[in-house]
Specification:
The protein is of the alpha+beta class. The protein has 2 domains: 237 residues, no CATH class; 84 residues, no CATH class. It contains 8 helices and 19 strands. Strands 3, 8, 13, 14, 15, 16, 17, 18 and 19 form a 9-stranded antiparallel β-sheet that branches. The chain has a two-stranded antiparallel ribbon with strand order 1-4. The chain starts with a strand and ends in a 24-residue tail after the last strand.
Length: 343
Amino acid sequence: MTRTAAGLVAALLACTGCRCNRHQPATAQPGSSAATSASPAPSSGVEDAGSADPWPELKWYGWVKDSSRSVPEPVDTVMRRFARSLPGYSGFPAELDSWAEWLRLLPLAAPGTPVRNFRGETVVPGDDEHLAAVVAIDIGTQDIQQSADVILRLHGEWRWFRDDLRMLYLSDTRLELPLGKWLAGERLVAAGGLPKWVPEAAPQPKLDHAAFREYLDSVFAWSDARALLGESVALPPEGLEPGAFFLAQGPPAEVLVVLDVATSPAGERAMLLAQALNPTESIHVIRPSRDASWFPVRTDQPVRVPRARPFAWKDLRRMKRRWSPPEVPCVGSLCPKTAPSSR
């Protein structure tokens, strides 16, 4: 099922002056900053009529209920806070439960939340003119989830939401880092300065989110911009879509994530951007100025954002599509001599 741009606009209009349960924050109370600072929430699909849960999509984000990590309190979503901040533009078509929709419904911390680093120190104050919102997601207490890992974190969490246990990423040496090996009890260790899988734990028939986060941290520890290049493909500017990202290889490597794209009737485009710089800091939505949340798409010039060097359009990329195994396993001479890569 595909939600068209017209459908998105209709959903936004339908929410005007009414309570849209599907994306109403569960914690917001009348008179609170969460209740007064965000517009009524647009629907992202079929309404759960009579549902006792005012924010069912919060379950999509495994870290929210993961008590092993410290997570900012979520109060609303990317779509709720920003969808109507660009009058006259229509949204990018997105399938239900897709990567694009998952990004649009990312939970956000309360307005005024500052960007903090992994030590808990404030990096960007909550009232900074270029800070639009902080994503309500953990970052850990070590300098592991750096800028280039942000797209891997979001992409991995989306695949976790999709129950995709065939997840696989790459190390900086192009060693494959499949979740399946982690499930089998293997762990990454340094061997001569290079990563190596060794059996260290009992196989896990079922993985909870806390263990999944440990797997992701091991990916971040051994991945870099070169690995991210191997996990993604170049995207022409005309192919700009939610979930695309700009990769500046550095050093240091930096990533700029495209959370959403909107188009005006005249064909002008705008994009909603998120980033986290080095060392590890909160993933946050940025804005060009206090009066604008969306960046105009101007492919004839670099993308200039706060606190980072300009990003070139030639650095626009998207993650590779997932590899799917054949429905019928190979038999005997039909099997390839070398197993196919999981990319």
